[in-house]
């Protein structure tokens, strides 16, 4: 049985005086994929930030089902290159909590997802020593290794080749099959076709 994990009602947002989102309504159900589409600058990334709670709407409300665990893959992730993280460490971040050390199960999950996304051979490399697609696969692994109820993914596969893109979609489908929800901003019609629902934002 599916249930609502995340809803947005009449959500509006403005950066200072610049209105970006207006009266956005959205209902995200468990075990479903929602695509966010719209031209450059239409507000997809902004809406994902609001859904994730890293920014607050200037109008309307966002409701998260209590206890919902969110994983966000931002579009802009350049800041992380300043840290001397290896690929493994970067993926492990997806499993960190303040309460306990990484368990054997956490390490197994990290290893498995690195194998699935074909970055295991890059384990000891620093992020800034990777190609664009290898780096993006590492960040996708960090997001998808989380045991989340909702995955908020901002153009996750924009930099990926066809094979890698397919691997990401397979992993995502496995999460969704076990009840997780995904909201994916994308310009790729093949990717948005995977979604049951589409929210199109007008500029
Ligand atoms: N920090 C900011 N301060 C002011 N304006 C911003 C800021 N971030 C984004 N904007 C503006 O808000 C609007 C929406 O931006 P947003 O990044 O959400 O669009 P998007 O749909 O994700 O675009 P893209 O397809 O290019 O990723 C744009 O007009 C952008 O210029
Ligand atoms: Mg964007």
Write the layout of secondary structure elements.
Elements: E1 4-15, E2 18-29, E3 33-37, H1 44-52, E4 59-64, E5 70-73, H2 87-92, H3 104-116, H4 132-144, E6 150-154, H5 162-177, E7 181-185, H6 189-192, E8 197-200
Parallel strand pairs: 3-7, 3-8, 5-6, 6-7
Antiparallel strand pairs: 1-2, 1-4
Magnesium ion is lined by residues 44-45, 75, 154, 185.
Notes on the protein architecture:
By secondary structure, this protein is of the alpha/beta class. The chain has one domain: Rossmann fold (3-Layer(aba) Sandwich). It has helices at residues 44-52, 87-92, 104-116, 132-144, 162-177, 189-192, and strands at 4-15, 18-29, 33-37, 59-64, 70-73, 150-154, 181-185, 197-200. The longest helix has 16 residues, at 162-177. The N and C termini lie far apart (35 Å). Bound molecules: adenosine-5'-triphosphate (ATP) and magnesium ion.
